[in-house]
Amino acid sequence: FSAIGSVTLRNARSRLALTAHHLARGDDRVGGIRALLAAAQQAQTLPSYGDAMRLYREAWRLAEGTLDESRSPTPELKRVALEAAVGLCGAAAIYGDSESDSDQRAASRGISLAEELGDLELHSNLLAAYGLLTLNGPLERFDDGMAMVERSVEIARRAGSPTSLLRAARGLIFACVLDARFAEAGRLADEMLAALERSGDARRGTDSYMGARFFRARLLVDSDDFATAEPWIAESFALSERFGNRTVKAASASMLAWIAFLRGEYDEAERWAKLALPIAEAIESLAALRSASATLLLARAQRGERGVTSAEIDRLERGLLSSGDLGSGSETIVE
Any long-range contacts for 226-230 (C-beta under 8 Å, 24+ apart)? Predict the structure, then answer.
């Protein structure tokens, strides 16, 4: 969206964050947690994913500490703690800034809270996010992650929440892609996109629709169907410009850079990577940052260019040191 709108939202988010920090240091812990969550959600809307992650983590740490100190936690406290766990794990799974131990502890405790409160919608959302984090973790836990994602779909159906079912379905698509179950992933992706067409989300270019396009793009790229992937992702890039979705714009440019690199079109790969990087940097999307940085350096290396700036190394290291993300390219190590 416009630069004026971006500045306005950023200023509003800053004011909200200051209020949240003030409340968090006071006696009203629940109010402080709610304020931190509101500021985190505002940061995601901007988007400014680094700010969102920091605020979600602060909300969870305050909630966790308050739960530990309370002999009889109120339902209200349990609910805001659950909301903090869902926000934190959801953002960590998508945007690539997972602190494995603390975030997994938040997920595990959050699942227990969801079961205790009987909140099927938040339970499904948290399982979908935690499942993705687990799928991106050690190989020996892959089956656990798959089971969580599948269970999230089951719970979302019981909850009757279209939004939760969409989130769970996206997680299941990605899980099937990682498990090389491409036909099943394709069927699920087609069903999801058709539902978003019927609901009018496609016409409006909602975040749900643009996110669904990203997951289909990942399926096409990871199954090496570049002939179908390239026009699909190029269309996603054009739609992201039309609807002002910088997250999908950065991811699409990163994937187009990677496809160009694999075809040996190194100038084109560099062009797309350079287009993706400032957007990924601005919104602090480590997934796109990692992919575009790696592709840029690989393209230059193929042309015999060995010079690398400290800023480029810094960007790549920030991406490589992240975990639990839906990185939009190959897992590549640049020497």
Answer: 226/259, 226/262, 226/263, 229/255, 229/259, 230/256, 230/259
pLDDT band with cut points at 50, 70 and 90 for residue 115: very high
- Predicted confidence (pLDDT) per residue in 259-294, tens digit: 999 999 999 999 999 999 999 999 988 888 888 999
Q: 0.90 exceeded by the pTM?
A: no
